[in-house]
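ugh ok so i messed up the first submission bc i forgot one of the chains. this is the corrected input, ALL of the components this time, i swear. 740 residues overall. if the numbers dont match what u have on ur side tell me asap before i send this to the collaborators (the ones from the other lab, u know who)
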Amino acid sequence: MQPMTLRRDPAPSRMSYRMQRLWLTPAFRIFLRHGLPLLVVMGFFGIYLSSPVRRADVVAGYQSIRHAVEHRPEFMVSMMSIHGASTPLADAIRSMLDISFPISSFDLDLKAMRAKIEALDVVASANLQVVAGGVLQVTITQRSAAFVWRTRDGLELIDATGHRVASITSREATPNLPLIAGLGADKAAAEAQAIFAAAGPLAPRIRGLVRVGDRRWNVVLDRDQEILLPEQDPVAALERVIAVDQAQALFAHDITVVDMRLPNRLTLRLSDAAFAARQHALGLDMAAKKAGAQKP
Amino acid sequence: MTELYQSQRAMRNMRRAAMQRGVIAILDIGTFKIACLVLRFDGPSQLTDRDAVGPMAGQSSFRVIGAATTRSRGVRFGEIHTMPETERAVRTAVQAAQKMANVRVDHVIACFSGARPRSYGLVGEHHLQERMVTEQDVARVLAACDMPDIGRDREVLHAHPVNFALDHRSGLGDPRGQAGNKLSCDMHMLTVDALVVQSLLHCINRCDLEVAGLASSAYVSGIASLVEDEQELGAACIDLGGGATGLSIFIKKHMIYADSVRLGGDHITSDISKGLQIPLAVAERIKTRHGGVHATGMDDREMIDIGGDSGDWDKDRRQVSRAELIGIMRPRVEEILEEAHARLEAAGFDHLPSQQIVLTGGGSQLLGLDGLAAKILGQRVRLGRPLRIQGLPQAATGPAFSSAVGLCLFAAHPQDEWWDFEMPADRYPARSFKRAVKWFKDNW
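and heres the new structure output, hopefully the right one now
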């Protein structure tokens, strides 16, 4: 029936009892689950990295892997092709960037290169991209000169927004560009463009525009005639002058200045000879006066 | 007296801390088995209408989340006699219950059946200074109870204020706020052997547990197995344990008497073992499978193999009839019941309005016991099973677990004891800061 051997004691030993109670302690479990692995990992790295030699090894290993990847043939750039630039500009860009091919595309700082190219006055915008086959493609949009700006220092080409394009030595190089002059003329280039566009029948006669006091334009015509445009709405004023000219052949008369500075009043200045002739005709000149005075 | 008050108060505080944490273990250290239940508290309950001075110990609803039972070792007559053995058994039970609950418990409430409990009824009187009964007055009247000579090495285990009387109105549950001149109270005090309790506390402390309360198993099994009207009208609970039989008498939902008979199921087993010349383990098995107290003609023909492995064919093939077995068991059962009856008689149980007796405990599962008990104890005997509590495994719902279940109820809804009330201001140790504060409060 009953075996007479000593039965195994089912009671837990004091140690295992305490261990079980420890295991059932929430703080201990949390520590074991999160704290201990963290400590072990941190301890391992801490001990491993405490030696400077091993630290340097790690850095060197990382660098060599990075170098190997970056210098794979897939990432190498072997040439640069420039589109949309004139030959001298392309040469200038090449010498400015000064890249020694072949080079890894990771070493190319396209943003900086683009900023550098766009710093050139003649370049409106640049687009750089590394295309298949290891080619660095630079697409340039050049600024087109819209005006010749005569300053005290010389002649400069500016585009329609007033940005400088290049300096020139004489007007012969660009005979068909309109001329503007005066301080601040470049900043008002857009206005100048509008005035030139509105010139219409007067266009062949316009020699250029002069910016006066950095606030308004004078239209200089040949035969020493001038139109003084107002600050506000110069195009409308010019159109009125043209209308008057077409109706009454204004500029065929011997006048030097058409003054539109007061927009609702067109003022003319006659040449000296015409003025004298008019005075004479009206009997208001000095000789007539004298004669009149002498005559009783 | 003050020392006991402090230590019981410390236990109450411990219990409150355990409730705060939400987990507490209860430990029924019996002679035959040690049961450990882990309770989880779910916050304060709605059960506040107790018939006492009002709940002061804090109450809560609970759920059993871990339960374990193990064979008790090193316990005799409900007292520890081999501490390392008992400690191992307690560890086994606690570990298994913790494993089932999957929480760690630090606080236990324990009960035990031995330690020679002795009941005292105390009476205290106090003349009220103001005409209204305050909490201080309740404390004073409790402190005014004349302390009997409980003997050396005895300690107070329970001290329930059972009844308050104001002038000539008796039977007050809660005298606070009522007007009167003289407040008197009846207190039931249960004392036990201090050394037995001390060794029990030491044993629990050796298991890294803190004691959050102690109870007499007679008291807690009464709580668990007497139904509410029995507790109200008066009834006795007889807890037939392994090594000791606990008696408790309840009336008006208060225990008024408790005692224990140092006889139990283990004595029946040892009688069988001696009478049939078989090992104790076999005797226990035969007792539980074939035991009974009424022999019939059928039992003469029912033969039980009692076996053995001595190697002697004749000895190992022995058989015994069930009538013989009953013949061995019955005198002992009768002795136990008669002893219990004598104790109840001595306590004046026959003067109680209701003579209900409830048998519970593992020994009450003996077949035919209710018939025998009715002959000895009177006609109103029934077998009691403990209350059903939430989460208790099916295996732990039998009458053997009535003290464990009662201990759960005791843990969750303790009745007010003397130490739940404030100490009267003049009983504080001299030069106490509290006393000064009290003086200020009373006089300003």
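quick check: The two ends of chain B are 30 Å apart (CA to CA). that seems consistent at least. The CA atoms of residues 25 and 38 of chain B lie 4 Å apart.
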